[in-house]
Design a protein that fits this description.
heterodimer, A: about 375 residues, alpha/beta, Rossmann fold, 2 domains, seven-stranded mixed beta sheet, five-stranded parallel beta sheet, B: about 325 residues, mainly alpha, ABC transporter involved in vitamin B12 uptake, BtuC, two-stranded antiparallel ribbon, 12 helices, 2 strands, about 65% helix, disordered C terminus
Chain lengths: ~375, ~325
């Protein structure tokens, strides 16, 4: 008969006790924390925007937790880098779905959202696209939803407003010849024509162009009442400058990319009369947004890159928290399927920085479009189009 | 549509906006001619020049003149550093031309990423305002940027012409371009001439990028996109023909802009590739105009990249090469 050493018994007891304590602690932690994922570009060329958007989401999350979290439980965000690259996005989504096992995650950038969608569908994990605006995002399957209005929303609003409210009869459209420009230009042309107007000139320009004299002279010859530009942040101010230099003094409309204070700084008086869209309320529309921008200036020393996008990211954890709260109240497990069903049951969310959001059955969202105009060197609200 | 005013306006804006493209093409062609390198790292030098001017004028709030000096100085210094620490070291190790080309590609991407990290990806300009006041001459709009740009381009080209024709380093550049080994036999120190050519190219890039950045917004990757035009102008103008590249840059600018009056504007960018394709297939040595015995169209020593060891038949006396 072998005799067991009392020391060995003691050690085994200690290890066992430690294991029990650790397991209990882990379980307690798991019970106290409700998790969701976030896959955003934290490195690479788009990191400037991605990092600001993540910071906004972290602020939103912190505000929720400061107010007691979700029914007393802390909300936690699992953050992964996508580099705004589809391949890296797939890796991040796989980890969130298979390893972290979150029921929902936030993502952005159209190419990444599209690449991730099959993973969401296969794993029944909800992907909330926040900021990507390709019209295709509404058709990516049962588990991809957007909280951000897709490309057609603001262009439709601005074209309708020009034709019906401003009474413009002849429009000219100048657009960059890539996917940002072509689809939106077609939407503008179709909506403006349907609204009773005529598109007198419809000119594309090369994405590498640094001079736009040719298309602008064609537009000048067409004598439009209004000119719509669908370009990028980098080239639109130059197109407007050259337009004014060539004597085109008509009102100019564009979309959300143009709505930033830098346009006025770069164009001075040439910016007067430019109309842009914003998909979120601005500092003059909401005291919460004004406080939010002030916080950026105070804590970061500047305004965020792409202010409206960061507003949507700030609000994203509030949507997650609302759905989790509702699931908790109904004592339903936090699965992707339940999250999706509950989100659609709630449907309308009242959010701190972007206002009311309604998620439609066709995977689009209903949001008002804010039309902003440069007047006396400032962006002022011209109209709100529902 | 095709009125005199329209054609004159297109012609004028094409010439003025070609100013920086000409300088980029000439800088690229010069390095290709003398150093025999497809210097794609020129994009990196352009980025350095722009952000130096941007830092001085836009960030530090100093004058445009200092910004101009910063663009020139930084591009020349970066060019010299690239030659001394990059190309010279690779030549010493007998690196192939393909390897040199890959190295230049890596440098251009490296600097673009570095600029992104330091300055971010938001497009920016040298001066706060992009808008330049306009004067009407007849019905032709001429902006306050146009005349200094055209003047800057012509002045830079005149200085380059004088340098290549009348200065000793310039004449040595022609000699080295013609036959580097023979030039060395005649006592010309190749490495110094390669360095001189890079510095001259850097100065041209500095002027070009200051002009571009005072009219257009720049992102860290903008220079890489601008390089295609410089390469196209160099190939169509005849590899090794600096003035051919300059002329081609202007002609391409006019054709691209003017074409919009006749064809749909989305074809504008495609035209460059058509010209490039046709030039490579049908005119691999560039489109050559009939030679004149006197003046600018003299037969300039050309570079044959496939035959670095020149045969006695195409070697020339460096002294006579200086006449080109």
């Amino acid at each position: 008969m072998t005799q067991t050493s009392p020391f060995k018994h003691g050690a085994a007891l200690l290890v066992g006790a430690a294991a029990v304590v650790l397991t209990a602690a882990t379980l307690a932690h798991a019970q106290e924390t409700l998790r969701f994922g976030m896959a955003m570009p934290l490195s690479g060329a788009q990191a400037t925007y991605g990092q600001d958007q993540v910071k906004a989401a972290e602020w939103g999350l912190a505000a929720i937790n400061e107010k007691g979290g979700v029914s007393g439980k802390k909300l936690e965000m699992i953050l992964l880098d996508t580099r705004a690259d589809p391949q890296s996005g797939i890796q991040a989504a796989n980890r969130l779905a298979s390893v972290e096992k979150v029921p929902v995650f936030v993502s952005a950038w159209s190419a990444v959202v599209k690449a991730i969608a099959p993973i969401s569908n296969d794993n029944k994990v909800v992907q909330l696209s926040v900021g990507a605006n390709s019209a295709d995002i509404a058709k990516l399957g049962e588990y991809t939803y957007t909280t951000f209005p897709l490309a057609d929303v603001d262009i439709t609003a601005v074209a309708n407003y020009a034709a019906k409210e401003m009474g413009k009869k002849r429009a000219a459209v100048i657009y960059i010849n890539n996917e940002t420009g072509t689809v939106a230009a077609q939407i503008y042309r179709d909506v403006f024509t349907k609204g009773g107007g005529q598109v007198a000139a419809y000119e594309a320009y090369d994405p590498k162009a640094s001079d736009w004299t040719g298309p602008l002279l064609k537009i000048r010859a067409a004598q439009p009442d209004i000119i719509h530009i669908q370009g990028l942040v980098a080239d639109t101010p130059q197109v407007i400058a050259q337009m004014r230099q060539l004597g085109l003094q008509q009102p100019i409309s564009s979309y959300s990319a143009v709505y930033n204070p830098k346009l006025i700084e770069q164009l001075g008086k040439a910016a007067e009369g430019v109309i842009a869209t914003s998909l979120a309320p601005g500092v003059t529309d909401s005291p919460e947004v004004a406080a939010y921008v002030e916080r950026w200036k105070k804590e970061v020393g500047r305004e965020p890159n792409g202010l409206p996008y960061t507003q949507y990211l700030y609000d994203a954890p509030y949507i997650v928290a609302a759905v989790y709260t509702s699931l908790g109240n109904k004592k339903l497990p936090l699965t992707g399927e339940n999250f999706r069903n509950e989100m659609l049951a709630i449907r309308t969310f009242d959010l701190p920085l972007t206002g009311k959001l309604t998620i439609n059955d066709d995977h689009t969202v209903a949001k008002p479009v804010y039309l902003m105009e440069v007047k006396a060197g400032k962006w002022v609200q011209k109209a709100v189009v529902d | 549509m095709l009125t005199f005013d329209t054609i004159a306006q297109v012609l004028w804006t094409s010439i003025s906006t070609s100013s920086y493209l000409v300088l980029f093409a000439v800088a690229f062609a010069l390095v290709l001619k003398v150093n025999r390198i497809f210097n794609f790292a020129q994009a990196a030098l352009m980025t350095v020049a722009f952000y130096a001017a941007n830092a001085v004028v836009s960030l530090a709030g100093l004058s445009g003149v200092l910004g101009f000096v910063a663009a020139l100085g930084s591009a020349a210094l970066a060019s010299a550093a690239l030659e001394i620490f990059g190309f010279r070291s690779l030549r010493r190790r007998n690196a192939s031309q393909m390897f040199l080309f890959i190295f230049t590609l890596i440098v251009s991407e490296l600097v673009a990423y570095l600029a992104m990290l330091i300055f971010g990806t938001w497009p920016t300009t040298i001066f706060p305002s992009l808008f330049w006041p306009v004067s009407l001459v007849g019905n032709i709009a001429i902006s306050a940027w146009d005349l200094p740009a055209v003047g800057g381009m012509l002045g830079s080209l005149a200085l380059l012409f004088a340098c290549l024709r009348y200065s000793q380093p310039g004449r040595f550049m022609i000699a080295v371009a013609d036959n580097p080994d023979l030039a060395e036999l005649y006592g010309i120190e190749k490495n110094r001439i390669y360095l001189a050519a890079m510095i001259v190219a850097g100065l041209l890039i500095g002027v070009g990028m200051f002009l571009y950045g005072s009219r257009a917004q720049v992102q860290p990757t903008t220079s890489i996109e601008l390089m295609l035009f410089a390469i196209a102008a160099t190939i169509i103008g005849g590899i090794g023909n600096v003035w051919g590249a300059a002329t081609t840059a202007i002609v391409l600018g006019i054709v691209q802009n003017g074409s919009v009056l006749l064809i749909p504007s989305e074809w504008q960018g495609f035209l460059l590739y058509i010209f490039l394709f046709l030039a490579i297939v049908f005119f691999p040595s560039g489109v050559k105009l009939p030679e004149r015995k006197r003046g600018l169209a003299r037969n300039v020593a050309s570079v044959d990249l496939d035959t670095r060891q020149s045969t006695p038949a195409n070697t020339v006396n460096p002294a006579s090469a200086t006449e080109d």
